[in-house]
Structure formats: C-alpha cells, structure tokens
Amino acid sequence: GQQVMQIPQYQHVQEGEDFTTYCNSSTTLSNIQWYKQRPGGHPVFLIQLVKSGEVKKQKRLTFQFGEAKKNSSLHITATQTTDVGTYFCAQGAQKLVFGQGTRLTINP
Amino acid sequence: GAVVSQHPSWVICKSGTSVKIECRSLDFQATTMFWYRQFPKQSLMLMATSNEGSKATYEQGVEKDKFLINHASLTLSTLTVTSAHPEDSSFYICSAPEGAYTEAFFGQGTRLTVV
C-alpha cells in the first residue's frame, strides 16, 4: 500500500516559536488526514485535505496539500504548551496508513 | 462527533493468558472497524479490519490465530490476544469511520502489559 514519510521525528521548540511537520509520498495521494495524539491518549482528527493545492486553517494551524498531491504540511504559528503531542499524517479512505509522526515538545 | 468506546483502558496479564478488548460505536453503526497497534514512540500500525458478519481481514505479518477478532454486531468488535507474551505488550487502538474519506473516530486505546 501507499506509504507516507513524515519528518522530522522530533521537534523541540520554545513556546511562541513556530513548528512545521511534513509528509511526503512517492505516489499521488487521494487524500491526507492529520491527527494529534497527546501523550497517553488516542489520535484525534484535525483535518482532511483532498484537493490539489488545498490550504486550510484552524486558528494557529495551517494545513497544506501539495499541487501534485504527493506532500502535505502542518504548520503551527506561535506554539503554546497545549500544542504538545505527536502529530500524524495519514492517508486512506477508511483503512488508514499513518506517517511516522512528529513528536512536538515545548519549552515554556 | 461520533463516539467510539474501548474497554479496558489498561490491562496487565500473565504470560500465556488471553485478553479480550472491546470496541463499541456508541451513536452510530459501524459495519467496519479497524484495529491498530502502537509500540512506544512509534506510529500506529494497522493490524486488521473487522467486518460485521464476516471474517476479519488481517494485514501481512499479523497472526490471525493469535489476534482473534469478532464483529458480532453493528456496534461491537472485540480483539482477543491469545496466549499473550511480553512482546505483545503494546497500545491497541480501534477505530470506526462513519464512511469513506471521513474522519476516523478512535477508541481511547488499551494499554496491554504482559508480565
């Protein structure tokens, strides 16, 4: 099945700094979903992107889907301590293939 | 959003025993549910697809005789880890989508520790 490669594996930032995680695929993706998993918790859906070049915003979070639908990014502006967790991209209709995840830690 | 409830949240069992984990969709019917496994600091890996009224389909490398899945009703799927060993210790999570290309609703997860 299709694989999505996600980088970086870890990211540590000072509170207030920006954060970005990237997902890449060698093949065209039908969709990309983003999830957040807090330590000890379960994944929580953030958003789904389906259109080429799509950009969606949720407050300080900006999600992009590449023009070729082979890459996606999640950018957080001015991180807050509540942003701590692991962010996963995933693709699929119902059965999801997850990226490796990016663990975000924040120094208050 | 839809609610998926998973039970138990955590379980400790002795090596060689079996453990049953339940996944329920509380406010919608799920003809299909998915079981994932997540080792510490790793991603979620799909184990199997649970199909209501028919056999589960397993991903490559997942032993169907060890991880028994039963989807007895439109709201309940169970995963039984048989003859558990310490290497089966992991975080098991179920999910149930409401449809195709929609968000997946995850259960709270079950942290299994085999001693």
Mind explaining what this structure looks like?
The complex is a heterodimer of chains A (108) and B (115). Chain A is mainly beta and 108 residues long. Chain A has no helices and 11 strands. Helices cover 0% and strands 52% of the residues of chain B. The chains are: A mainly beta (108), B mainly beta (115). At the A-B interface, strand 5 and strand 10 of A face strand 5, strand 9 and strand 10 of B.
Structure summary:
By secondary structure, chain A is an all-beta fold. Chain A has strands spanning 5-7, 10-14, 19-24, 32-37, 44-49, 55-58, 61-65, 71-76, 85-91, 97-98, 102-107. In chain A, β4 and β5 (44-49) form a beta hairpin.
Descriptive terms for the model:
heterodimer, A: 108 residues, mainly beta, 5-stranded antiparallel beta sheet, 11 strands, B: 115 residues, 7-stranded mixed beta sheet, 4-stranded antiparallel beta sheet, 0% helix, globular
Task: Please write out the topology.
The complex is a heterodimer of chains A (108) and B (115).
Chain A: E1 5-7, E2 10-14, E3 19-24, E4 32-37, E5 44-49, E6 55-58, E7 61-65, E8 71-76, E9 85-91, E10 97-98, E11 102-107
Parallel strand pairs in A: 2-11
Antiparallel strand pairs in A: 1-3, 3-8, 4-5, 4-9, 6-7, 7-8, 9-10, 9-11
Chain B: E1 4-7, E2 10-13, E3 19-25, E4 32-38, E5 45-51, E6 57-58, E7 67-73, E8 76-81, E9 90-97, E10 104-106, E11 110-114
Parallel strand pairs in B: 2-11
Antiparallel strand pairs in B: 1-3, 3-8, 4-5, 4-9, 5-6, 7-8, 9-10, 9-11
